[in-house]
Amino acid sequence: MASTKEIKNRIKSVGDTQKITNAMYLISSTKMRKARREAEETKPYFDLLRREIRRMFAVGGDVSSRYYDSAVDENVAGGRNGILVITGDKGLAGAYNQNVVKEAQALIDRSDEYRLYVVGDFGWRFFRTHGVPVVESFQHSMNEPSLAMARDITRELLDEFDDGAFDRLYVCYTYFAGGMSSGNATHDRLIPFDKDDFVPQGEETDADASTVFEYEPDVKTVLERIMQSYLVGYVYSALVNSYSSEQSARMMAMDAANDNASELLAQLKLEYNHLRQNAITQEITEISSGARSLRSKNA
After folding, report:
1. 196: which DSSP letter?
2. Domains of the chain in sequence order
3. What pTM was estimated for this model as a whole?
């Protein structure tokens, strides 16, 4: 059985750990709110880009582009795939990193050939440890995702796509559902986009087609230029979603750690009080026994 001194030291240790986990909870909460606020500030710009792309399809008719393809059955295995994986820089976030790595591994298993691109130290260390070749580990910290980071990543990936390194590019990230949620690991086909997602339907088609627009030098050239900006927005959205999901997962993990620490502290304090009470009782018993013994001798 542990002594009162050992229990007292353990109480102090658990208390110090709880202060750290509580601080990490508050820091993650602040980082998540900041990331979501910055994403909301940029969202109108990229919504406008998407609306303009839809207008180009309505006005320009059957426009071909390297960034578009007809609907593809994503359940069909095979192909030369580029895979961008977004993980965190560190752990202490529950199963956040493991889930997105599993999503990436499923895509790797389905590919005839693949080229792996990783953002985040955790993913890079994981794939290196397991012998999975990584083409590029982007030297960006996931501590603060930014549009500049998204531009750098998109530029390198587009260069690889233009050089014929892969036919399709997927992004594996964690979609943030909001609230106290660790998000859902998922993947999207980044290049080429499904053309049907941008073809206007119904009344929107009539309204856009009835408006006269002129694109210089032509619709295809403008479309490819604007698509590069839209791709930056897509990557940025994936980065922010992953970052927000990581912070939310860390908040949940630290909250659970705080609860466990509180329960452990309650148990330790109860055990400490029992031992202390037993020691006091034993001392009183010894004093009473000694007093009786003295009285018996003096009688």
Report:
1. G
2. 4-23+256-298 (1.10.287.80), 33-253 (3.40.1380.10)
3. 0.77
